[in-house]
Amino acid sequence: MDATSLFEILIRENTDMLFAYIRSGVRDQHAVDDLYQETVLTAWKRLDTYDRDRPIGPWLRGIAGKMMLAYYRRTSRTDQPIDEESLQWLNDRFAAIGSLQGDTFHDKLAAMRECIDSLPETFQRPITMRYTEQRAWGEIESMLSLAKETLKKRLARGKARLADCLENKLGLGEAS
């Protein structure tokens, strides 16, 4: 198999993971799309530096992380909303997800969706509004008629329940 074919297969297998990783650090969908394309192009240009004995996911996330930091340096006039430490935490979480049972990233996302669907409405709606719909804190507070502290507690408790559910479904050793 030639390098081009191998690269196409590896990118196809990692596209959802890579989009999710970038999306977890960047809110603007156009920027997410651009950063994904820049990451893939950079990976292609640097393919000769990829160690085929190692998983490609961490390598791609490393490139994407550098792209996100550069993006924020170009566009932010204030503090960057993401830093090296946050990127390392994200990368560790994605690595943990990658080691879970389930053949594909889609299988793992399906498990996450099942866990979200199993949450009581008290936790499900705030989590969906914040993380799926990407709504702002104030908007969620207003729509659900909740105080900010109540919303924070519901999100924290909902995420804890999600972690427990995923641990049970997929055998996640460290849920957080």
Characterise this structure.
This protein has 176 residues and is mainly α. The protein folds into 2 domains: 96 residues, RNA polymerase sigma factor, region 2, helix turn helix motif (Rna Polymerase Sigma Factor, Chain: A), CATH 1.10.1740.10; 66 residues, Winged helix-like DNA-binding domain superfamily/Winged helix DNA-binding domain (Arc Repressor Mutant, subunit A, Orthogonal Bundle), CATH 1.10.10.10. 74% of the residues lie in helices and 0% in strands. The protein has 8 helices and no strands. Helix 1 packs antiparallel against helix 2 and helix 5 crosses helix 8. The model has no long low-confidence stretch (mean pLDDT 82).
What's the topology here?
Elements: H1 3-23, H2 29-45, H3 56-75, H4 84-98, H5 105-118, H6 121-132, H7 137-144, H8 148-170
Helix pairs in contact: 1-2, 1-3, 2-3, 3-4, 5-8, 6-8
Organism: Stieleria varia
Pfam family, one: Sigma70_r2
Family: Belongs to the sigma-70 factor family. ECF subfamily.
